[in-house]
Amino acid sequence: MKVSRGISTFAEGRAPARCGLVIGNFDGVHRGHQSVLWHARVATARLGIALVVLTFNRHPKAVLTPACAPTEILPVREKLLALEKCDVDHVVLQPFTRAFASLTPEAFIEDVLVGTLNIAWLQVSKDFRFGAKRAGDFALLAKAGEQHSFTVSRSDTVLDRGVPISSSTIRQVLSRGDMREAERLLGRDLAFAGTVLAAAGARDGKRWLRVRVGYVRPSLVGLFNAQITFNDRTVVDGVVALSGVPGASHREKRIAEIFLDGDAPLPVGRAVRIRILAPCRAFPSDDTCLAHEEDAMEMAGRSV
């Protein structure tokens, strides 16, 4: 799967072949998203064109209405990995800025969809709005499709037990600590990657790591039982402290603090993968660590 960091880099100086496009935030790339992308894959395969996803680096609300911005189910890197598993050919990861938001609906259609991406087929949700003041809608896209020779398809809402599968629903599930239900709705493990920082050692019998993770505003905040997988495929149990304290800028990533059981190695500079299992009310089986719970959360929220 190819990734373009912005619409302007999509064609890389050459005229792009016509493509099929799906637009969305895709936070979590949950089962609802997976169903939408599967139908898009089938449609584009029939047309013999590539499947392209246009998604955003920063949720639009984080720019336009920061007080109402949702937290992240997955960091951007994990979102890209999940999209690749959905058999997407190309992802355009567009930085969402006020300048981008100020494009008129007509400019978005003519300059982005037609002029740059060269779409032949487009799929959006029934309530999709776009352009300055959210003035563009499905009807405008359908009319533009007739003019510019592209087809517009409306994606259906995917239900689970009669309830729509949505990123908002999964955030609510995470907020009440039901990790297994979150994984069921996601259709995979609730896991993310991180890089071990230099500050690592032992404290009161617990070995610990500080790990930079890709989150900026995580939906997961608190202490969690977890499985940590190292590069050599060693899997150990531990407790992860992840803070939701905002950083100095939207680019600042969170720091997780991981307390490990056993004699696991401390591989500074290496990548690790963290699977969240369940909320942890206290550090397991070691009362001497309880006094450090607040300190762990403070450290996890601190930038380096």
Termini separation: 32 Å
Broad CATH class of the largest domain: Alpha Beta
Measured by DSSP, the beta-strand proportion falls in 25-35%
How many β strands by DSSP? 14
Domains (count): 2
Order of helices and strands: EEHEHHEHHEHEEEHHEEEEEEH
Largest sheet: 6 strands, parallel
Low-confidence stretches: 283-304
In which range does the helix fraction lie? 25-40%
Structural class: alpha/beta
CATH superfamily of the largest domain: HUPs
Gyration radius, to the nearest Å? Answer: 21 Å
Q: Order of strands across the widest beta sheet?
A: 1-4-3-2-5-6
Number of helices: 9
CATH architecture label of the largest domain: 3-Layer(aba) Sandwich
Mass-distribution shape: elongated
Q: Overall pLDDT, averaged? A: 84
CATH topology heading of the largest domain: Rossmann fold
